[in-house]
Design a protein that fits this description.
about 350 residues, alpha/beta, Rossmann fold, UDP-galactose 4-epimerase, domain 1, 7-stranded parallel beta sheet, 4-stranded mixed beta sheet, 13 strands, about 40% helix, binds nicotinamide-adenine-dinucleotide
Length: about 350
């Protein structure tokens, strides 16, 4: 038996691949390496192709039979909101076609279990204090739309026996190991570190929002906590631990922390990690940034027994490039000492 992890060479997927391997599972990764790194998958089988290719269903089906796949964790997707607005059909092809091929292959190969990476982007910009799974989904960009469609496709696949859990992620940060760090500059923490590495000012986009310190508030979850949530979901679908693989009444869960941190709080948390006080520059608001997006994560705790446990400090410290860590001695320092 093995687990197929699509997008397993990516940031979050590679953390799940590692946890699966650490508990002795055989893992097969499919990743087109458009944003993944092969060195992240350890000794997993890595097949490099695009899930949205016309022949992907056939390739995936053959792979599932060959490796006796019994469950799929589906991360592979394009994920940049701005890009999705510029090239919506490309996003539909990658994310929706990719999902269609994957579900089709699972149906052909008789694989009925999937954990799916969904997103808080499915909600859009709800004007609520805490977002629950019952908060209406009104995605405001093609990226969020493709994630919601992916959820619907899985719900429809339940008619032919698909047993799925969709995890809606919020802001993911941190790293379980230095080589698995998020290198894409799309989320606040890597953006700050990349600016520091480049010797640039740290920028806050707007400090006049209706929040306690005026900066946007988001729900941040440590990537290792999130990776563990996938294993908990997978085990529930396979009937491990709970003793039942019966379909759940609820299959969509917010995989958040339930705690909102402001942009300024996140930047302040970075200062002790790098050993100097950051003095961010305040720039204009970014278009379309809602003041607050925080998950009510109580359902996943109640139903699946998962709760994020790592702190903001854990996230920013583990995400920090070694050369920025307080006390780090670079080559230059070493030279001086000699
Ligand atoms: N990072 C976040 O904060 C966040 C938040 C919400 C949801 N998500 C979702 O989580 C999943 C993983 O995100 P991530 O941050 O690890 O992104 P990532 O880009 O690091 O990982 C995605 C992986 O999928 C691969 N991939 C993309 N399209 C593919 C395709 N068509 N065929 C085969 N492989 C393909 C990429 O090469 C990459 O390795 C995505 O589905 C994303 O939408 C991420």
């Amino acid at each position: 038996m093995s687990v197929l992890v699509t997008g397993g060479a990516g940031y979050i997927g590679s953390h799940v691949v590692r946890l699966l391997q650490e508990r002795g599972e055989d893992v097969v990764v499919v990743d087109d390496l458009s944003n993944g790194k092969p060195e992240r998958v350890g000794n997993a089988v890595l097949e490099t192709f695009d899930l949205s290719d016309a022949d992907a269903t056939v390739k995936l089906g053959a792979l599932m039979l060959k490796h006796e796949v019994d469950a799929v964790i589906h991360f592979a997707a394009l994920k940049q909101i701005g890009e999705s607005m510029e090239r919506p059909l490309w996003y539909y092809k990658a994310n929706v076609e990719g999902m269609r091929h994957l579900i089709g292959a699972m149906q052909d190969a008789g694989v009925k279990t999937m954990v799916f990476s969904s997103s808080a982007g499915t909600y859009g910009q709800p004007d609520v204090d805490m977002i629950t799974e019952k908060t209406p989904c009104q995605p405001i960009n093609p990226y969020g739309q493709t994630k919601l469609i992916g959820e619907w496709m899985l719900d429809n696949a339940a008619r032919f026996g698909m047993n799925s859990i969709k995890l809606r992620y919020f802001n993911v940060a941190g790293a379980g190991a230095p080589e698995l760090r998020d290198t894409a500059m799309m989320n606040l923490v890597p953006i700050v570190y990349n600016r520091l590495l480049a010797g640039q000012d740290v920028v806050i986009n707007g400090d006049d929002y209706p929040t306690p310190d005026g900066t946007c508030v988001r729900d941040y979850v440590h990537v290792v906590d999130l990776a563990e949530a996938h294993l908990v979901a997978l085990d529930r679908l396979r009937g491990i631990r709970s003793g039942t693989a019966e379909p759940l009444a609820q299959t969509v869960f917010n995989a958040g922390n339930g705690i909102g941190y402001s942009v300024r709080e996140v930047i302040d948390a970075i200062s002790p990690v790098i050993g100097r006080t950051l003095d961010p520059v305040v720039g204009p608001r970014r278009e379309g940034d809602p003041p607050r997006l925080v998950a009510d994560a109580s359902a996943i705790t109640e139903v699946l027994g998962w709760k994020a446990s790592r702190t903001l400090e854990d996230m920013v410290r583990s995400a920090c490039p070694p050369e920025l860590l307080a006390g780090h001695r670079g080559e230059k320092d070493g030279d001086v000492e000699q």
